[in-house]
TrEMBL record:
Sections of the chain in a coiled coil: 178-205, 246-288
Molecular function terms from GO: zinc ion binding
GO term, biological process aspect, one: innate immune response
UniProt KW Metal-binding keyword: yes
Residues of the B box-type domain: 141-181
Residue span(s) of domain RING-type: 8-48
Species lineage: Eukaryota, Metazoa, Chordata, Craniata, Vertebrata
Annotated ranges, domain B30.2/SPRY: 328-499
CDD domains per UniProt: Bbox2_TRIM16-like, SPRY_PRY_C-I_1
Organism of this sequence: Channa argus
InterPro entries from the UniProt entry: B30.2/SPRY, B30.2/SPRY_sf, Butyrophylin_SPRY, ConA-like_dom_sf, E3_ubiq-ligase_TRIM/RNF, SPRY_dom, TRIM8/14/16/25/29/45/65_CC, Znf-RING_euk
The protein's name: E3 ubiquitin-protein ligase TRIM39
UniProt keyword terms in alphabetical order: Coiled coil, Immunity, Innate immunity, Metal-binding, Zinc, Zinc-finger
The keyword Membrane is assigned to this record: no
Length: 499
């Protein structure tokens, strides 16, 4: 039940001893009696019905019981509410509460006091206090008062950007522009809400960026794991091939050495056999030479000299292993070169995934648009494709028949109206063909490229985040040059110049 149902229209307070008039309206007994005492005419304050004689009024027992019940319930509610609204740290306390401080519900700018629910009731019911200006509770009410005029700060001076009282607006800010504090507060609140919305939008964007970075980190990890697996496979194969080559080399050298040793042993065995036979004949000759009797007859019994070889003329030299290691390393190098070419082919196939759409250059060499066909560029053409500041990018350039060209990427801030400084420190990562057959990269100094074939189609791949610029001989599936650990901080443009 609403409290308005039990308010006396004279005192504007809850009924005390409610009585009813003949016209059916209810008032406090004391209120209606005093009203008729001070007025000449006896009439109802509500409907203005006049009575020839003052009517007898009796207590309305039904309303009296309802008021009594309402007061009891309101008191219980107030008591329960007060128990639950004990002031907490950071909240504004009631200035009237003596013992346990309760939480203030409103602050009065006239009284300069903050009230809990119980002590606020007079300001809600008493006619004199209803005119006071109430606001949400604040701790320092003195700050809401004009220090100069001791009046409530009710206006905001937009000219001086300060809060003022009514006297200030007339005396000190006469020609200034004013709005109410409520209006200014609502405006500031709207600005704060807009700022909060912008901040939340910024937070959301950053959260999305975090998710994107996490996704890229996971993608990078998957890519790294794949590269590790591939690297382990390749290097394991290389080490296995190297070990196999080394084993074959050792076996070949040892086989040759065993053959040479067997040959030497055979020669030594022959020599030792002849030595044994010669020593035996020498012994017989010596024995006969010392005999004095029948020498001639003894000489007839002497065996004929065994046949001998001219051992000094038989060729025998140590085995030469010169070139064996060189040939083995050459075979390994050939195998490595083949594997390297396969790796470059696989790498080239991956980076071609990031190829740009076909581009058509205008005849004046200044505009680029998408096209579905290849285009033969005229000599002395300089081309800058749309810049990019993240991700990966790949495209190929036909350089067949060109006597000179420059290909690479340059930064957005580089002065393209003048000669471009071909140095990474100045924002340029390029390679070129000069003098018809001289290939080099500009790395702050000339790096001459030792190429086995003359490139006819050059591919360029850029990984912005990785800081990588790679150049490929597409037909030979070979890496021409790489710029690594590049520090990209601004938009990059692809640069191509030929003549």
């Amino acid at each position: 039940m609403s409290e308005d149902l039990f308010l006396c229209s004279i005192c504007l307070d809850v009924f005390t001893d409610p009585v009813s008039t003949p016209c059916g309206h209810n008032f406090c007994k004391n209120c209606i009696t005093q009203h008729w005492d001070i007025n000449d005419r006896c009439q109802c304050p509500m409907c203005k019905e006049s009575f020839t004689t003052r009517p007898d009024v009796h207590v309305n027992t039904f309303i009296s019981e309802m008021v009594s019940q309402f007061r009891h319930e309101a008191e219980q509610k107030r008591s329960s509410s007060s128990e639950q609204q004990v002031v907490k740290p950071g909240e504004v306390p009631c200035d009237i509460c003596a013992a346990t401080k309760l939480k203030a519900l409103k602050s009065c700018l006239v009284c300069l006091v903050s009230f809990c629910e119980t002590h606020l009731e007079p300001h809600l019911t008493a006619s004199g206090l209803k005119r006071h200006q109430l606001m949400d509770p604040v701790k320092n009410l003195e700050d809401r008062m004009c220090r100069k005029h001791d009046k409530p700060l009710e206006l905001f001076c937009k000219t001086d950007h300060t809060c003022v009282c009514m006297l200030c607006s007339v005396l000190d800010h006469e020609t200034h522009e004013f709005v109410t504090l409520k209006e200014e507060s609502e405006g500031k609140k709207a600005e704060l809400e807009k700022t909060e919305a912008e901040i939340q939008q910024m937070i959301q964007k950053r959260r999305l960026r975090i998710q994107e970075i996490k996704r890229l980190v996971n993608f990078s990890k998957e890519h790294a794991d794949g590269e590790i697996v591939e690297g382990v496979r390749v290097f394991s194969a290389l080490m296995e091939a190297g070990q196999s080559g080394m084993d074959e080399l050792i076996e070949l050298i040892e086989k040759k050495q065993r053959k040479k040793e067997k040959e030497g042993e055979s020669l030594i065995e022959g020599l030792e056999q002849e030595i044994s036979e010669l020593m035996e004949r020498s012994s017989e000759v010596e024995k006969l030479s010392k005999s004095e009797d029948h020498l001639l007859q003894s000489l007839q019994s002497l065996k004929a000299a065994p046949p001998t070889k001219t051992w000094m003329e038989i060729s025998f030299s140590p085995e030469s292993h010169r070139g064996t290691v060189f040939r083995a390393v050459g075979q390994l190098e050939e195998m490595l070169s083949k594997d390297m070419k396969n790796l470059v082919k696989a790498e080239l196939k991956k980076v071609q995934h990031y190829a740009a759409a076909d581009l058509m250059l205008s005849y004046n060499g200044k505009l680029v648009h998408r096209a579905g066909v290849r285009q033969h560029l005229p000599d002395n053409t300089s081309l800058c494709i749309n810049g990019f500041s993240s991700g990966r990018f790949y495209y190929e350039v036909q350089v067949k028949g060109k006597t000179g060209w420059t290909l690479g990427v340059v930064t957005e801030s580089i002065n393209r109206k003048e000669n471009i400084p071909l140095r990474p420190d100045d924002g340029s990562w390029t390679i070129c063909l000069t003098n018809g057959d001289e290939y080099k990269a500009f790395a702050g100094y000339d790096v001459f490229l030792n190429l086995k074939w003359r490139p006819e189609k050059v591919g360029m791949f850029v990984d912005y985040e990785e800081g990588l610029v790679s150049f490929y001989d597409v037909d030979a599936a070979a890496v021409m040059h790489r710029f690594t650990d590049c520090s990209f901080t601004e938009k990059l443009y692809s640069h191509f110049e030929c003549w």
